[in-house]
Structures are given as C-alpha cells and as structure tokens.
Amino acid sequence: MQPLTISQALATACRDIDRIDARLLLQHVLNAGHTFLLTYPDRILTAQQLEAFLHLVQRRIDGAPVAYLTGERDFYDLTFKVNEAVLIPRPETELLIELALQLIPSGRSCRILDLGTGSGAIAITLAKHRPQCEVTAVDLSPAAIAVAQWNARNLQTHNLNFVTGSWFDELSGEEFDLIVSNPPYVADTDPHLQQGDLRFEPPMALSAGDNGLSCIHCIIDKTPDHLVSSGWLLLEHGYDQAAACRQLLQEKDFSNICSHPDLAGIMRVSGGQLNF
User: Fold this and answer.
1) How deeply is 272 buried, as exposed, middle or buried, from its count of CB atoms within 10 A (0-12, 13-18, 19+)?
2) Domain ranges of the chain
3) pTM of the model
4) Residue 183 marked ligand-binding
5) 139 is in an annotated binding site
6) Thinking of the domain 72-274, which architecture would CATH place it in?
7) 58-74, pLDDT tens digit by residue?
8) CDD domains per the record (predicted)?
C-alpha cells in the first residue's frame, strides 16, 4: 500500500464519503483532534494507521454510522460512548435538555425520571447540570443499561441510578417531579427505517406500532401515577405528532400543555403539568 499523508488520505476518502465523516474517522484512528489534522497535513500515516482508516471508510461507504465506527457521539456539552445497542444521540434531542433545565432552577432539589435512557445521554446530562437532583434512568435493554452505566462512570456522574425494565413497571409507588423521555416514535411501516443510519440502530429504540404513538400513549397514560402534584412530563416525538401528543395529554387532564420547535422549526417536544 502506497504511503499517504494526512491530506492525501482525506482526499482519497472524500471521493466516496462526506469530508466531515472522513475527518472524524481519521481523528479517531490518530486519536487526535481537528487542529492536529490542520497543523500537520503532510504527516505520513503509518501502514497500520492507513489500513485502519481505509477499513473504516469502507464501512462508512457500506452505510455504517460514523458514531458506531468511532464509538462515541457528542451530545449537549458531553461525549458519550455509543454502540449498536443504543440509539445515536441527536442534536434535536438537546431541546429536551434545555426545556427540562428551565423547569429545574439551579439549586432546586427534585427527582427526575428518564424513560428509555439508551446511552444515558439525557439522564446523565441532566444529572451533571443539576447535581442536587436525584435522577433515575430506565431502559428495557440490559445492553443499553450497560452502555449508560459505563457513560455515567466515565463522566463521573453520581446522582444517578439505573433500572432495567419496561417504562414504569419497576417503579411501583415511586413519584417524580419531572419525567422526560425520547421514546420510540417511528411507525413500523415508515420507509425511513430502511434508510441511512436508522438501518443500523436498534429497532426497539425507534419504531412503535402502526402510527408510531404506542409508546407515547403508554407513557402519558401511566404518568399520572408517578408524578407529584404540579410535576411535569416532557416527551420528544415525531415531526407530525405534536397535535396527537397534546390531545393525549389533554385526555389525562394535564394543564399548561405545550409543544416546542427544534432548531429546524419542527415541533419536536410536547409536554404538560399535572395538577391534582
């Protein structure tokens, strides 16, 4: 194999994949940041580095998500380990974090529940930003819980506990001040499930029945048994599900029902407050 410099290796990869993807893969192989690539474009890769890089490039050509190839993804202001057992954290979910933090002033102690935690991105981010709160993270997948626990240890998050189970099944009698969730909300028949990164992500973290609302309906239906008076529920949902979510919240007598747009202007998070 002919030796290549950093700039030559990137140019070669960019014939087949996006430049940002190529850069992230090379940074991963070199265990270096973007500044290193810019500073040393003429640095010659070792044969082992080049082979590893081209292998990752080929896997990316075959469709594998960059986050799974590098084993990590940035979310909010933290970096999380990810693998095929968990959904890849996405920028639009950061809206859920922003809204949750607005409901919990710094210094206020409360109990937070994250349903379907996956990599732990939501739960850990909230726990790090509100260290005075007690955060519980639930997931049905033991493999996902293992990833989330690793992230919690790596990010030195101590006000957090994990529960393996389906939604509220293992939380009998427990109440929370705030419940958040990014549940599966893609319809089983949605063609997007067979496109892009979604082809490689765990189906149980993505799809939810014929209309994509089965998990959302289950969460809203059972939340009143686990929220304190004046507690809040916030849910991420699909681009066309805001009205349906608000209707479901209204049927369970939530008040202050609202929907919020992400940076693309799409209504992405809906929620409400429970008063009784």
Assistant:
1) buried
2) 6-62, 72-274
3) 0.92
4) yes
5) yes
6) 3-Layer(aba) Sandwich (3.40)
7) 999 999 999 999 999 99
8) AdoMet_MTases
